[in-house]
Amino acid sequence: MRVREESAVPLERRTAGLTRYDEYAVTIPASGDRALVMVPQGVSPSAAVYYLHGRTADETSIGERAGVRDGLLDAGFVVVSPYLHGDLWGNRDAQDALGALHDWVSCRWPVSRRFLIGESMGATTAANAIRLREMQWAGAILVAPSLSMRAVWERGEHGRDTLAAAYGLSADGHDLESKTEAWDAVRHEPDACAGVPIRVYASPEDAVANIAEVTGPWVQRLRAASMAAELIVVSGEHVSPDHFRVDDIVAFCTNQP
After folding, report:
1. CB–CB of 245/201 below 8 Å?
2. Alpha carbon of 78 to those of 107, 113, 176: distances in Å?
3. Does the pLDDT of residue 238 top 60, yes or no?
């Protein structure tokens, strides 16, 4: 797609529920990163939801999650979908791009609450955004989360190259643990999530985001430390349709203070 400048006239669209909204395709000046920003018409939004894409995707991938997008817009949320410079696995550059986008959006649509939806690789970006606390988040939804960089490396070609590029890893990966220590969500201390309710959608049939060895134990660690974390067990393979329970997701964002 051709990305328009930030001052361009937005496209007017409608959700499946016939909510009219404006779609801005922008390049954020402070970061040079692309994003889609969708704003429902006729309301004063009180919240924004940032959708962080999975590996090999981009800012337009929100279109593949049209049910979630439309449900949030129908509920009056601003929906923000950044590229974050591609497959950076939540690293410093990704966080800087997210921060620049946050500032740009907040100047134009001031809201009192902000949420994260992190899909697969995007869950690592979301977890690090929570840990860094450079922005305030009212809650986070992690969908088929890829939370272990060791697991990504061991899967081989499915993500290894981009992970190595994102963190400057050696070809044999001997420096994986040291170079990703602060950024690997499964190694974060549970209190990194303090004050941010988290809902996780994960499937036992998912061979990418392992619920038995990674996702489940991670949520249990958070709960054992009295963090507000919830695991919703769904069905199907990685990012199957059952991971995207629109009513649940909208209700989670609506009900957070």
Report:
1. yes
2. 13, 10, 37
3. yes
